[in-house]
């Protein structure tokens, strides 16, 4: 009877020991499953990071508006390429690490099925979990650092105006330049009108003064011979002054005519240059369209 009790107690002890081992294996599998899920999440985050890097590269390729902006973006492109290379190395490392963990899980299951010592098995599981958690923490820190680098590059890229913004700025500056030139032309026209009217006023004042002088001295001057000679000399001087004034006006008119002819020549040259630029722009647009079609064909191929 006592021997049966001892045998029964030993059987219960072995069953409890086996249950403990099963529970430890279950906990280990759950921990490994959690670790695998965390690794999948990290892989998904890395995939999202790669997509963001691809979008940044496409955004950089679209910013071909200004040479200065392209020169600023070149080191950013180099840094992105370096990050992609490091990302590829880390992805390979993660895949190898995952395969290693799966192999360790399979090895632990085989050991448990063969009746491996539960204490050693538990210690191995604890060590593997500690190493995996440490690696996971380091990977999270590295991904956080790379995310900060990507955000910094995105902010630098956002500070550089894109092609549509540059076109809008150029259009606005052209409108302001045309408005300023129109105001300048109107101002010059008003000043020229004012000067012409002022000159006409002076001539009319002189003419009025001359007529008043002739009217007041004509009766006295016509009586004597000396008075008539003085009146004739005075009229001749007035005629000479008028002729000099007319010559001066004609010289100014000739200068204005020359300036007008020069402006016409410049306008004709500008129109010819505009037509040439328009033809070059059309040729460039057609070349860009052909290049886009060829690139799309090569990408699809």
From TrEMBL:
InterPro entries: CCDC93, CCDC93_CC. GO terms for biological process: Golgi to plasma membrane transport. Residues 17-289 form the CCDC93 coiled-coil domain. Keywords: Coiled coil. Pfam families: CCDC93_CC. Residues 32-73, 246-273 form a coiled coil. This is Fidipidine, putative. It comes from Ricinus communis.
């Amino acid at each position: 009877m006592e021997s049966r009790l001892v045998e029964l107690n030993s059987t219960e002890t072995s069953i409890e020991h086996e249950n403990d081992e099963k529970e430890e294996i279950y906990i280990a599998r759950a921990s490994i499953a959690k670790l695998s899920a965390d690794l999948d999440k990290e892989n998904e985050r890395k995939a999202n990071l790669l997509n963001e890097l691809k979008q940044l590269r496409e955004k950089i390729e679209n910013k071909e508006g200004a040479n200065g902006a392209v020169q600023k973006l070149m080191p950013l492109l180099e840094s992105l390429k370096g990050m992609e290379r490091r990302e590829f190395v880390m992805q390979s490392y993660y895949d190898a690490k995952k395969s290693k963990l799966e192999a360790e899980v399979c090895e632990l299951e085989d050991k448990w099925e063969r009746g491996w010592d539960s204490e050693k098995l538990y210690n191995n599981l604890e060590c593997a979990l500690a190493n995996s958690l440490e690696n996971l923490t380091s990977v999270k820190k590295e991904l956080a650092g790379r995310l900060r680098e990507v955000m910094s590059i995105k902010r630098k890229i956002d500070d550089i105006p894109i092609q549509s913004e540059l076109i809008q700025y150029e259009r606005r500056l052209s409108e302001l330049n045309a408005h300023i030139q129109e105001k300048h032309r109107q101002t010059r026209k008003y000043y020229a009108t004012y000067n012409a009217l002022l000159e006409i006023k002076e001539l009319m004042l002189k003419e009025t003064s001359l007529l008043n002088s002739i009217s007041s001295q004509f009766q006295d001057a016509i009586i004597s011979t000396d008075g008539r000679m003085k009146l004739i000399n005075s009229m001749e001087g007035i005629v000479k002054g008028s002729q000099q004034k007319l010559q001066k006006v004609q010289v100014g008119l000739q200068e204005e005519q020359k300036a007008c002819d020069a402006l016409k020549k410049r306008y004709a040259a500008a129109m010819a240059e505009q037509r040439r630029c328009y033809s070059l722009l059309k040729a460039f647009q057609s070349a860009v369209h052909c290049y886009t079609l060829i690139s799309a064909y090569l990408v699809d191929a």
